[in-house]
Amino acid sequence: MRNANGQVFQMATTASAMKLLSPISQNDGLSVRPSWDAVPLEALLRETAGLPSEVPFFIDNGAKTLGQAEMWFGGGRGARDAVIALIGSGVGACVVVNGALYGGAHSSAVEWGHTTLRVGGRRCRCGSLGCLEAYAGAQALRERWLEAGGPLSEGADEETALAALLLAAHPGDGGPPADPAAVQLLDETAEFLGAGIADLVNLFHPERILLGGWAGLMLGPALLPAVRGYAAQYALRYPAERTVIELGRLGPDAVTVGAATLPLADFFARGGRRRQQLPDEAWPGQAALVAEDEWRAYGVGRSSG
């Protein structure tokens, strides 16, 4: 199902799974967003959907579900060290180190979008200044295109704005001349993304970095060569030469695909054994924890063939 905010989750009678584009606390089923403060999301959803307590509920950050999908079925298969970046309205990343999810099952996704790229820069929707997301997220690109004088109605959504921006910069044969403001804005975006990717290269030395998310896949064909070039300029040469930067392979629905695998990952992590009923006093979200070993047990260890 897709709600009014575009957030997608999968429901079933034997298990339920959901992805959310915000930090998630797996220990207590809480979600924290810029406008939320430890909202007990699992409890609210169980009550609204009438979901019995014996039905496992899996909730995780969208960047992590994207990463799981790409590692199991997409461009990450066969890699031991990888980063899967989600570029949508905001920006996030899932990091896999030595075949395991970085930070373990109890933490949120890597908040790559909220690393500082410009001191004293644009105000991010998280409240901080100069975040990568404030320059490379779809919401920010829409705002920057309007500020640059782009011919865009105030009511245009993010997808429409990105399509218009790309068309203005790359009108194609027989079209009008490229809009210099659009060309400059996209080149700046490629540089910010390249610099942010260089941070990931220097920190984690991944074999592969995959750019995904609906906005990442829209921008990727036009920006990927420049992003690679800027990443090489900003990263240390040795790890950069050993990192491949590509687009994700599973398309814009990969985040949802990853959410749908959460119950399956839990099943594999338990060795195919039936889940035991937890006592009533178990803390919320305990049944939803996905063991770190799931990455080793099934996804990452598979060959790339």
Descriptive notes:
- The structure is a single chain.
- The chain is an alpha/beta fold.
- 39% of the residues lie in helices and 13% in strands.
- It is built from ten helices and ten strands.
- The strands form three sheets. It has a five-stranded mixed β-sheet, with helices on both faces. Strands 1-2-5 form a three-stranded mixed β-sheet. It has a two-stranded antiparallel sheet with strand order 3-4.
- Strand 3 (24-25) and strand 4 form a beta hairpin.
- It is globular.
Quickly list its features.
3-stranded mixed sheet; 10 helices; disordered N terminus; globular; alpha/beta; about 300 residues; single chain; 5-stranded mixed sheet; about 15% strand
Any chance you could write out the topology, listing elements then pairs?
Layout: E1 9-11, E2 16-20, E3 24-25, E4 30-31, H1 41-49, E5 57-61, H2 62-73, E6 82-87, E7 91-97, E8 100-101, H3 133-136, H4 138-147, H5 158-169, H6 180-204, E9 208-212, H7 214-234, H8 237-240, E10 244-247, H9 254-269, H10 294-299
Parallel strand pairs: 2-5, 6-9, 9-10
Antiparallel strand pairs: 1-2, 3-4, 6-7, 7-8
Could you give a short description of this structure?
The chain has helices at 41-49, 62-73, 133-136, 138-147, 158-169, 180-204, 214-234, 237-240, 254-269, 294-299, and strands spanning 9-11, 16-20, 24-25, 30-31, 57-61, 82-87, 91-97, 100-101, 208-212, 244-247.
